[in-house]
Write a structure and sequence with these properties.
Layout lengths: L3 H10 L3 H23 L2 H18 L10 H22 L8 E6 L5 E5 L13 H19 L2 H12 L4 H8 L3 H18 L5
Antiparallel strand pairs: 1-2
Helix pairs in contact: 1-2, 2-3, 2-4, 2-6, 3-4, 4-7, 6-7, 6-8, 7-8
Length: 199
């Protein structure tokens, strides 16, 4: 029996354009989350997710429902796009906008740098202690995941954050089932070790 994603793909292949829109809506946010954690860049994650859907849209006529899982196919395409992005990023010099601006020169001709974030007005009503602690923990978890080596980070993200089965992860990452389970367990141990100060 076909799952909902396969049914939607079949409907799209028969000319129902709205079916593909439903697929995008169903998977857009989890895909963006996966990509953001893969490349450690939230800003570019949406663009890469969109590119993933464009590739799927163009190749939809070749998709065979029931042969491969839709999510496996989607994450496989996204994984390859992410790897390309990381390779391209390493090749080019990336100019980043700083949060520091020059205030102009004073009477002596010296320029003063102003840190926009450090000088932003802080409103304590928007920073309750509990929310701050939660945010620190979330940031620590994201940082710890980002610091994991790719071979451990990807299976962990696909399993614990995206909810894929071990078999689906093995298919996406082209690994044996035992290797997938081993890497996920190793990643969890590494993560636990990195988060000891917060636990």
């Amino acid at each position: 029996m076909l799952d909902l994603d396969d049914e939607l793909m079949q409907r799209y292949q028969k000319g129902d354009e709205g079916a593909f829109t439903l697929l995008v809506r169903r998977h857009q946010q989890p895909l963006i989350n996966f990509i953001a954690r893969f490349i450690n860049d939230r800003d570019n994650a949406e663009d890469l997710a969109q590119e993933t859907f464009i590739r799927m849209f163009k190749a939809a006529h070749r998709y065979e429902p029931g042969r491969a899982h839709f999510k496996t196919w989607m994450y496989h395409i996204a994984k390859n796009l992410c790897k390309n992005e990381i390779r391209n990023r390493e090749r080019r010099d990336k100019y980043r906008v700083d949060n520091v601006v020059n205030s102009g020169s004073d009477n002596n001709g010296d320029t003063e740098e102003i840190d926009l974030i450090a000088n932003a007005p802080a409103n304590p009503t928007f920073q309750p202690e509990v929310e701050l602690e939660r945010k620190e923990l979330r940031n620590a978890i994201q940082k710890a995941i980002a610091e994991l080596p790719e071979q451990y980070r990807l299976p962990l993200v696909l399993r614990d954050l995206q909810g894929l089965s071990y078999d689906e992860i093995s298919e996406v990452l082209e690994l044996r089932s035992g290797t997938t389970k081993s890497r996920i367990n190793r990643a969890r141990l590494m993560l636990k070790d990195k988060l000891k100060p917060f636990i």
